[in-house]
C-alpha cells in the first residue's frame, strides 16, 4: 500500500512544508526539498489566474520545436456524417516524453523525478513507454484504436527502471477516445471555450498514479477512459503536470484562441503555451492551480511549480478529398 508522509518544519514565522510519498514495496517517490517550497502570506481574495489577460509570450528561448515539413503531422479519420477529419499536431517539450503518430494518435508521459535520487534517468521509462505506445498503435485496426489497450501493451513491453504518468488520445469513429493515468491530461477547446478536461488521478496531494516496471505499479486498467465527440475547429491540448499545475484551463484556451486567429501552426501554439507555463512556474507569488491545490491540502504555498513541461496541440480539421 502507498503511504503519505507530511513533514512541516518551522521556518521563521511560517511553516516550511517538506513532503515525501513512500511505498514500502517500491522505490519511486516524489519529494519537495526545502528550497523548493515558497511561502508567503495567504490572501483569500486572490484573483484566479483564469481571469487574467494573457500576455503575448515570446518563444525565441523555447527549446525543441518539432519541425514539420508540411503544415503538420496529420491523421485522417472518417466520422459520422461522412466527414473525414484529421489531426494536425505539433509539440514542445522539456525532458518529458511524447509522441505524434500519423496513425491517428498523440500521447504524453511524465517520468517521476524522484528516480533521479537513485541515479536513474527519470525520463527513460517515459520515453520507452511512449515508444512502445507507437508500436502498439501500429497494430490497432484503422479507425478503431483503443488507447487503453495500447497503454496496456506498452506497459508490459517497457522494461526500463522508473515510473511515469501516461495520456494517450486517438481519433476514432466515435470521436476522441482517450486514456489517462496520473496527473498528465488534456483539454478540448471549442469556439474559445474548454468543453472537456480530463480529471487528475492522485492517491494523495501531489502523489500521482503512475506506471512502473514491477509489481508495485498502478496498473494500466486504473487509467480513466474517455470518449468525446469532436467537430472541425476543435483544438486538443495534451500536456504533463508541468502545464496543468501552472496554467488554468482558461489561460490555455486563451492562448489557443490567439494562435488560431493568427493562423499559427500547432507546434507554435504549443510553444506559446509551454512558454507561458514556464513563466508561471517561475512566479513565486501568483496563484496557480498547484498553489490552490496545495492550500486546499493544508499547505502555505504560493506561486508556480518548477517542473518539466510537455505540450502537444492538435487542430481538428477536415481532410482534403
From TrEMBL:
The keyword Nucleus does not apply. Signal peptide: none annotated. InterPro entries: PPM-type-like_dom_sf (IPR036457), PPM-type_phosphatase-like_dom (IPR001932), PPTC7 (IPR039123). It is an enzyme of class 3 (hydrolase). Its EC number is 3.1.3.16. It catalyses: O-phospho-L-threonyl-[protein] + H2O = L-threonyl-[protein] + phosphate; O-phospho-L-seryl-[protein] + H2O = L-seryl-[protein] + phosphate. Keywords: Hydrolase, Magnesium, Manganese, Metal-binding, Protein phosphatase. Its cofactor is Mg(2+); Mn(2+). Residues 70-316 form the PPM-type phosphatase domain. Coiled coil: none annotated. GO terms for molecular function: metal ion binding; protein serine/threonine phosphatase activity. Belongs to the PP2C family. This is Protein phosphatase. It comes from Vanilla planifolia. The lineage of its organism: Eukaryota, Viridiplantae, Streptophyta, Embryophyta, Tracheophyta.
